[in-house]
């Protein structure tokens, strides 16, 4: 899926502005990140940046509904690895046989010997 870089960066803006308020990122780095945005979008980020500089505060959620796509993709990747590790011990061939038996009404289990 192709995403407009100017739209995609919106999800990262809160993190960038938080880092800026903590003096962990230079204004030039934010300027580079937002350079793909529309002029109006860049202006919105700059206004929050100026508010942070003036009072060391400011709402960094310029677009509250936007998510950081990179963070979401990383989390999905981590969850997939964890699921693979968690379910790696399952005997899928046996599980498939059991499901088939349930569907057909037969049993893969060995009959028990009762006296």
Task: Write structural notes for this entry.
- The chain has 115 residues and is mostly helical.
- It folds into 2 domains: 5-67, no CATH class; 78-106, no CATH class.
- The chain has 6 helices and no strands.
- The protein has helices at 5-8, 13-21, 27-34, 39-55, 69-87, 92-104.
- The chain is elongated.
- Mean pLDDT is 79; it is low at 111-115.
Report a brief summary of the structure.
The protein has 115 residues and is mainly alpha-helical. The protein is built from six helices and no strands.
Count structural domains: 2
Our Rg estimate from Cα atoms comes to 26 Å
SSE string, helix = H, strand = E? HHHHHH
Q: Which consecutive residue ranges, at least 5 long each, have pLDDT under 50?
A: 111-115
Extended strand count: 0
Helix count, per DSSP?
Answer: 6
Mean pLDDT: 79
> What sort of overall outline do the alpha carbons produce when their principal axes are compared?
elongated
Give the termini separation. Answer: 64 Å
